[in-house]
Amino acid sequence: MLLLIPGPVQTRPEVRAAMAVDIAPWDDDTQAELAALRERLLAIAGGVPGEHAVLPVTGAGHAVVEACLRSFVPPGGKVLIPLNGAYAQRMARLAREAGRAVVALEVPDTRPVGAAEVAAALAADPAIGHVGMVYSETGSGIVNDPEAVGAAVRAAGRRLVLDAVSAFGALPFRMDAHPECDALAFTTGKCLEGMPGIGMAVARTDRLLACAGRAGSWVLDLAAIHDHALRNGWGSHRFTPAVQVLHALGAALDLYDREGGQPARLARYAENARVLYEGALALGLTPYLERRHQGPIVVTVHQPPDPAFALRGFVAALKARGVLISNFFSTATPTFRVGCIGAVTPGEMGAAVAAMRDALDSLGVRRRAAA
Ligand SMILES: *Cc1c(COP(=O)(O)O)cnc(C)c1O
């Protein structure tokens, strides 16, 4: 089965095989392994040892995004969130439920937020301390621009929390070039092509010290995780981590390095997305995004207006042809969503497009272009 979903992604056999061991978290070898993993991840994040720290939180990605918001935005503090997609909405909910005040910046889910829009919103409300932004919006496939938006946040003297969960490892971002960024969040199971189960933040250590005590949660307190590492070592854990996931991440990073790191991964994903986008057009389908806004992580396509089309039936017909895509959508209007990330080649993407053609034909879907 070819898994074309934006996490957990298709993985390589070497990564899956690395899970098949029993591991003691406190063992010296395990601790050395986590410490080494942190160094490798810090390098991918463009972090500087001592100035930035990699802070793991076992759990789904939402847990680490919540930890970033709780640890840096003060209780009752205002966070501006450009709402151009389902994951931005989720970030807003995480912040609200944690008792932070969300200032919504409404933006359609078909385009990135403009840096000028963010600058204007910040100028209009000096009480906003943070901007919370999703880098790659996994709901629609757009990519917001942390270079331009980060510069606007910096110029306004505010702080940035970046949800880079579906971007990290493929789309470029360097913490050392973004002093306005308190933290970015990512997970093991997306563009790094590891197993799901651990979220990680890369955070500024000066800000961790300055913001200590804000989280209102023991589990989701990045300052406490940092403090624990300072006292007990960079291989230590506060609670039982998903050790097999960490071990498999080492294998995934070996493959990442062998492929050529971030530029090579981005190039492969961008080619996957191009094959899919062109393929959808050739099948008479209408991609949800204009080509200039189409990112390399996820391609969403308007559901055909033909009454013979139903999402679940289409997903089942594709699955019968060896391709698994999401059986739900989270765009403003009905779409189907195809992930371009994971251990997937452009050749396999071409085969997936052929499977889509067969599936549509078998269902008798003739009217395919969006109205
Ligand atoms: C996957 C993802 C998350 C986290 O999702 P989980 O299901 O909690 O792992 C958060 N933000 C974005 C943009 C994502 O793509």
From TrEMBL:
Keyword set includes Transferase = yes
Q: Which Gene3D superfamilies match?
A: Aspartate Aminotransferase, domain 1, Type I PLP-dependent aspartate aminotransferase-like (Major domain)
Set out the biological process GO terms recorded for this chain's protein.
organic phosphonate catabolic process
Q: Which reaction does it catalyse?
A: (2-aminoethyl)phosphonate + pyruvate = phosphonoacetaldehyde + L-alanine
Q: Cite the EC number.
A: 2.6.1.37
Chain positions recorded as substrate binding sites: 337
The residue ranges of the Aminotransferase class V domain are 57-288
Q: Which SUPFAM superfamilies does UniProt cross-reference here? A: PLP-dependent transferases (SSF53383)
Q: Please list the residues that carry the modification N6-(pyridoxal phosphate)lysine.
A: 190
Task: Decide whether keyword Transferase is in the record.
Answer: yes
Q: Which InterPro entries does the protein's record reference? A: Aminotrans_V_dom, NH2EtPonate_pyrv_transaminase, PyrdxlP-dep_Trfase, PyrdxlP-dep_Trfase_major, PyrdxlP-dep_Trfase_small, SP_NH2Trfase/AEP_transaminase
Q: What class of enzyme is it?
A: transferase
- What superkingdom heads the lineage? Bacteria
GO MF: 2-aminoethylphosphonate-pyruvate transaminase activity
The family annotation for this protein states: Belongs to the class-V pyridoxal-phosphate-dependent aminotransferase family. PhnW subfamily.
Q: What this chain does, per the record? A: Involved in phosphonate degradation.
Q: How does it assemble?
A: Homodimer.
Designated name of the protein: 2-aminoethylphosphonate--pyruvate transaminase
What lineage is this protein's organism placed in? Bacteria, Pseudomonadati, Pseudomonadota, Alphaproteobacteria, Acetobacterales
